[in-house]
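Anyone able to model this chain together with adenosine-5'-triphosphate?
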Amino acid sequence: MMEPDSLAIQTKDLTKRFGAFTAVDKVNFEVRRGEVFGLLGPNGAGKTTLVRMLTTLIPPSGGQAFVAGFDVARYPRQVRENIGVIPQALTSDLDLTGWENVDIYGEFFGLSRRERRERGHRLLHLVGLTERANDLVATYSGGMRRRLEIARGLIHSPDVLFLDEPTIGLDPQSRRAVHDLLETLRKESEITISLTTHYMDEAESLCDRIAIVDGGKIIAMDTPVGLKSMVPGADRIDLVVEKNPDAIAEMLRPMPYLREVNRDGGNRLQLSSNDGAHAIPKILEAIDAAGDRVTSITVQKLSLEDVFIHYTGRTLRDEPAKKVSMFVGAGMPQQR
Ligand SMILES: Nc1ncnc2c1ncn2[C@@H]1O[C@H](COP(=O)(O)OP(=O)(O)OP(=O)(O)O)[C@@H](O)[C@H]1O
Ligand SMILES: [Mg+2]
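re: yes, here you go
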């Protein structure tokens, strides 16, 4: 019944069918204790269904899942005692204060009055709601409610925290506050976090590993960096040379780190590389040796959105790729 202690979540051919339709199709993955694991996928991919099986809300139709060491089908009570669940919809009680919301949950999990008080106040402090603890939740913003629900989900010291779209519908400032909170949890506690999200930046900055889910299957799973490096020519390099772009293009074409070299009007060249970070010094060196000069160079990192398109052929949501520019001479890398 028990799985190795180092694993917080393990699935074996986990499957969920609704009638003739298979929503989750023989999914296999493992999450180590302390890891932040992201499930990323388009609408209807099966993310919520997967999470609902892992949190014992619905039984699997096939395969197995172990959470915090317990088989979800055979030991649902033990699983529930060891997990915190933050569903997508805001579920805190508007007619109660923040503190009361947390306290009731603690009582439900059988904590003593003293444990509830100690832990509850510490968690409300962690989520930045100490000042508002005695106000009715009806007076909270969406971001405050979400943070309260995270505190509430942690009251019984779960080993594994499941969050389904934790920042959907929040304004940028509240999203930021929730991100900071999850970042703090990740750094300062041993907790394992499983989160589903549509937001690429969220998946990329918070998750140690990401599973891309589509059509009920995991189609790719790795670290954010690993996922990107699986897509060929991931880094786009734009550069401008001072004198002779044609000759420079010819010279760069056979270089090992480069996949494509194109002229792009004027003195501009457009390159693609599997490894922009290593290509750039070599490019600069080669151009220097050829007696020309680079006046500007820009690397556009492939975004997770591009990775997503590569694997699924579809976009997830419109989020522009981040550009990191480096103007030669000015010396300072800049975000733009
Ligand atoms: N109770 C149910 N009965 C029948 N079909 C269901 C049921 N629950 C989910 N499905 C179907 O299973 C598929 C996966 O749904 P699920 O909610 O898991 O997707 P999701 O990845 O969470 O999507 P979203 O990003 O929209 O939240 C969908 O086609 C959905 O219609
Ligand atoms: Mg969902």
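The first strand starts at residue 7 and ends at 18.
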